[in-house]
Design a protein that fits this description.
By secondary structure, the protein is mainly α. Among the domains are: 2-45; 63-112 and 155-181. It has eight helices and four strands. The strands form two sheets. The chain has a two-stranded antiparallel sheet. Strands 2-4 form a two-stranded parallel sheet. Helix 4 (63-75) packs across helix 6 and helix 5 (81-88) packs across helix 6 (92-102). The longest helix has 17 residues, at 118-134. The radius of gyration is 31 Å and the shape is elongated.
Length: 183
């Protein structure tokens, strides 16, 4: 946009009419007003920058608070926006606005995926070979069943609350992004 404005001003200084500027820069007819306003603004103020806009300045979502929120997310991207709002003593909507609008981030849900480490792969292969050896002679009737269960404690995952705040899903490390589902 700034590049177009400076090109428009240069052509206007060289004596080109507004119609000629539109044709030279291949600006569509529906943006004709943009050229007229840019030239008028330059003639009135001597600059092409936007004028100061009216409106109430931010009182809560200040740059200082944005910096605080950015640092807290950088340290712990799994931090809850609700808890962050309570700690900073501001409303939840203000924190959400800072994260989404000002910082350009969003929440990503953690995913449950099947975890297969090298140890698990080796152990599975051994168990499968053992199963095949046991059933070679059709000794299926000799298998004893019990009510015991071998299990590992998995990390708890609440998909509604367990979120990671980041710019893009691809920038998140796989370690906190995925929760292993171990059998």
């Amino acid at each position: 946009m700034e590049h177009e404005r400076s090109a428009i001003i240069e052509l206007a200084k060289n004596g080109k009419t507004q119609k000629e500027i539109l044709k030279l820069l291949n600006i569509p007819a529906n943006r004709r007003k943009f050229v007229y306003r840019t030239i008028r603004r330059y003639n009135e103020t001597g600059e092409v920058c936007d004028k100061a806009r009216s409106g109430r300045p931010p009182s809560v979502t200040t740059p200082a608070l944005q910096k605080l929120v950015r640092e807290r997310i950088r340290r712990n991207p799994r931090r809850s926006m609700r808890k962050m709002a309570q700690e900073l003593k501001v409303s939840e909507s203000s924190v959400r606005k800072i994260v989404k609008v000002n910082l350009g981030m969003r929440s990503f849900r953690r995913k449950r995926v099947h975890f297969l480490s090298e140890q698990v792969k080796v152990k599975r292969l051994q168990r499968c070979k053992g199963q095949l050896r046991r059933h070679v002679n059709h000794d299926i009737k000799k298998i004893v069943f019990s009510d015991e269960k071998i299990f590992t404690i998995e990390e708890a995952l609440n998909p509604q609350n367990d979120r990671i705040i980041s710019h893009k899903s691809s920038t998140i490390d796989p370690d906190p992004k995925y929760v292993p589902r171990v059998q």
